Amino acid sequence: MSRGTVPVRGYALTRWGRAFVDVVEGRTDGNSPTVADSRHITKARRYFRDRHVRRLSLGPGRVSASVDGSQLDPFDVILTMRVVDAGTVTQLLRAQGAVDDLMSLTRGEQPATLGSLILPTETADIASDCTCPDGAVRCIHALAVAYEVAAEIDRSPLTLLSVMGTDLKSLLDAAGDRTPRPTTEADADDGQTPVTDDFFGGAMILPPLPTPSRMNPLTDLDGTALRAALRATGVTPADMAETIDELGDLYDRLVEVPTDV
Predict the structure, then answer these.
(1) Quick one: pLDDT band at residue 223, thresholds 50, 70, 90?
(2) Residue, of 176 and 18, whose pLDDT is higher
(3) Final residue of a domain: which of 124, 159, 176?
(4) Domain that holds residue 137
(5) In terms of domains, do 15 and 121 share one?
(6) Is position 200 within any domain?
(7) What is the rounded CA–CA span in Å between residue 34 and residue 126?
(8) How far apart are CA 113 and CA 120, in angstroms?
(9) How confident is the model at residue 253, as a pLDDT?
(10) How many folded domains does the chain comprise?
(11) What is the model's pTM?
């Protein structure tokens, strides 16, 4: 295949990927780079396109890789992130009415509010270390690794969570952790009155759960449709009535509350 037909590799093609690279390069103030100069950036981009980065490993708050450079042996690079706390992130999401951002994340989206809470925002949030002799804050090899990380973030937003020290399960668990808090010692001893925090942090007693009337869903189904569905599963017309009775009995057993609980 000729070089002209080889697709050009890209990185920072999404909002989160671009924001990650901006911090690494020092562009967070919107001006020209203050951490990585243009010469380093240009060469690092070529390293990325030519796949000089090897053995990329993404872990909680840490990225490591080897980069082929100007010497015979590759250089070892480690990026260390200032990690986020899942509980703090979800608390801030809740305060901003953006808990649904977690659901957006499961669909592969990159919601803005969640990103603002997880993404690094300043150069100090990402430390880089390389075995090369370059004394720059961001050497060519560290930049090339950062571009690989940005490309992974472009492919999956969950990559950002990982490198920033958390994951979707931790965030969902933290979002669902609304442990009831009693308002008085009597409430605590009672053990029956559910109490939760309201939006402003005060305690609020929840109303009792409703007691729904007993029902049999089979009686609410369209009889013609039910029989057609049963026939499709192989039930003969002669066995139809008995099968419907068995379904009703099965439903009663499923919803029956044990008396010894």
Answers:
(1) confident
(2) 18
(3) 176
(4) 7-176
(5) yes
(6) no
(7) 14
(8) 13
(9) 67
(10) 2
(11) 0.65
Cα 132 to Cα 44: distance, rounded to the nearest angstrom = 14
260 in any annotated domain: no
Does a structural domain hold residue 2? no
Which residues are CB-neighbours of 247 under 8 A, at least 6 positions away? 218
Question: Quick one: 25 and 80 in the same domain?
Answer: yes
Q: What is the predicted pLDDT for the residue at 188?
A: 46
DSSP the chain: --GGGSPPP----SHHHHHHHHHHHT-TTSSS-SSS-HHHHHHHHHHHHTT-EEEEEEETTEEEEEE--SSSSPEEEEEEE----HHHHHHHHHHTT-TTHHHHHHTT---HHHHHHHS--SGGGEEEEESSS--SSS-HHHHHHHHHHHHHHHH-THHHHHHTT--HHHHHHHHH------SSHHHHHH--S-EEE-TTS-EEEPPPPP-PPP--HHHHS-HHHHHHHHHHTT--GGGHHHHHHHHHHHHHHHHPPPTT-
Q: What are the φ/ψ torsions at residue 205 (nearest 5 degrees)? A: -80, 130
Amino acid letter, residue 47: Y
- Which amino acid, 26? G
Q: CA 108 to CA 89: how far, in whole Å? A: 19
How many residues are present in the chain?
Answer: 261
Q: Is residue 206 part of a domain?
A: no
Over residues 32-45, mean pLDDT: 81
Which token pair is 82?
């200032």
